[in-house]
UniProtKB/TrEMBL annotation:
Alphabetized InterPro entries for the sequence: Amidohydro-rel (IPR006680), Metal-dep_hydrolase_composite (IPR011059), Metal_Hydrolase (IPR032466), Metallo-dep_Hydrolase (IPR051781), OTAase-like (IPR057744)
Domain of life assignment: Bacteria
GO MF, any single term: hydrolase activity, acting on carbon-nitrogen (but not peptide) bonds
Name the UniProt record assigns to this protein: Amidohydrolase family protein
């Protein structure tokens, strides 16, 4: 079958690498791959036989990558209930709807950090599910009484052995190894563990420590024995962040109360920070979805979080974009870029956090994350210039074209 060649012309190109934009650029796509990206003058010989799409000076960026979502859940209340009130068949269709919203927002790849099984990834790969490319953690590793343990003081267990459970409870280094093996067996692309409590935990707080350094190191060693995978640590309090980095995780998710020692450790080891600052956007309007204690805990965190994340950014910790969608609102993922700018990143750096940096964290920078010849054609067109107003990308109506692997999946022009 002859591959279709498409030339996107008259664009302002932001290629995701942090390089200066190219005005009046052309990007040529052959099948699912980019074959040229650069000044229009260099593409003249490539246009013959191509379908030309004139983008009228709009901005072309790589497909964005959200490194922290929970597509299995609509909002915080569903996460707490673990979807116990929803039939599994209905839950699957709801995931599909949320995945489409995410794709329409300009996010062409995501890392789901708890709630989706590996079948969703396979469905997307086989063309059965219109969704961003997926990496899945399947379940969260936590200790008894930790962030992923939803047995309430009343004795009611909202996770337990339910087939939709997102909990993997471990309480020793050996159990941590076995838990990692179970997750690898069940198709996890990334291991998610809880190094601290959290805002929504029934039994602990963001300052409580979760898995120990030894347990985290055992997980890292076990993962390395089986071909290697990224390890993402839910970590909000300072002590748990330090434990996670010392144990060998790849990324700190949230990192809200990181201290100077934690920043030192992350810089020393090259650990990524995924700040998920979108969870603070409009949460007052969603307070009815949270238990009172969770809302009050979040309120108490807000000011200190922005201070500490700003310091991590100032000192040069590597940042990748993640939203914690479900806690934040699905389909508004690129609001996170404005949040990153609010903590000191310039718009280009924020875009890079959602493109090449995110692809590097996910281990797929050889295929996606920038607009370069030989990479998959994941492209997003924005009406307007996000370098002048990064907030443009927060509104999905400004995302007027989305291309995933060469296929147009959203078009408003």
């Amino acid at each position: 079958m002859t591959e279709i060649r498409t030339a996107y012309t008259h664009v302002r190109l932001i290629d995701g690498t942090g390089s200066d934009p190219i005005d009046d650029a052309t990007v040529v796509v052959n099948g699912d791959l980019i074959t040229y990206a650069g000044p229009a003058a260099g593409a003249i010989g490539l246009l013959e036989g191509s379908t030309t799409v004139d983008l009228g000076g709009r901005t072309l960026l790589p497909g964005l990558i959200d490194c922290h979502v929970h597509l299995a859940y609509q909002d915080a209340s569903k996460l707490l209930l673990n979807n116990l009130d929803v039939n599994q068949s209905l839950a699957a269709f709801e995931v599909a709807a949320r995945a489409q919203l995410t794709l329409d927002a300009g996010v062409t790849s995501v890392r789901d950090l708890g709630g989706l099984d590996a079948g969703f990834r396979m469905a997307q790969e086989r063309g059965l599910l219109r969704a961003p490319r997926l990496q899945v953690a399947v379940r969260l590793m936590s200790h008894t009484g930790g962030h992923a343990d939803f047995r309430w003081p009343t004795g009611i267990d909202l996770h337990g052995d339910h087939p939709l459970s997102a909990a993997e409870i471990v309480d020793s280094e050996q159990e941590a190894r076995v838990g990692a093996r179970r997750l690898i067996r069940d198709g996890a692309d990334v291991i998610k563990l809880c190094a601290t409590g959290g805002v929504s935990s029934p039994s602990d707080t963001p300052d409580d420590e979760g898995l120990t350094v030894g347990e985290i190191a055992a997980i890292a060693e076990e993962v390395a024995r089986h071909g290697g995978r990224a390890i993402a640590a839910h970590a909000q309090g300072a002590a748990g962040i330090r434990n996670a980095v010392r144990g060998g995780v790849t990324s700190i998710e949230h990192g809200y109360l990181i201290d100077d020692e934690g920043i030192d450790l992350m810089l020393e080891r090259g650990t990524f920070l995924v700040p998920t600052l979108s969870t603070f956007v409009g949460y007052h309007d969603r307070r009815h979805l949270l238990p009172i204690a969770a809302y009050e805990a979040k309120l108490a965190l807000e000011e200190r979080t922005f201070e500490r994340i700003s310091e991590a950014v100032r000192r040069g910790v590597r940042v990748a974009m993640g939203t914690d969608a479900a806690i934040s609102v699905h389909g508004t993922n690129l609001t996170e870029l404005s949040q990153l700018v609010s903590v000191g990143m310039d718009p280009m750096a924020a875009i890079q956090a959602g493109t090449l940096n995110a692809a590097t964290l996910l281990g797929v920078a050889d295929r996606v994350g920038s607009i370069e010849a030989g990479k998959l054609a994941d492209l997003v067109v924005c009406a307007g210039d996000p370098l002048s107003d990064i907030g443009l990308l927060a509104d999905p109506s400004n995302v007027v074209l989305v291309v995933q692997g060469g296929e147009v999946v959203k078009r408003l022009i």
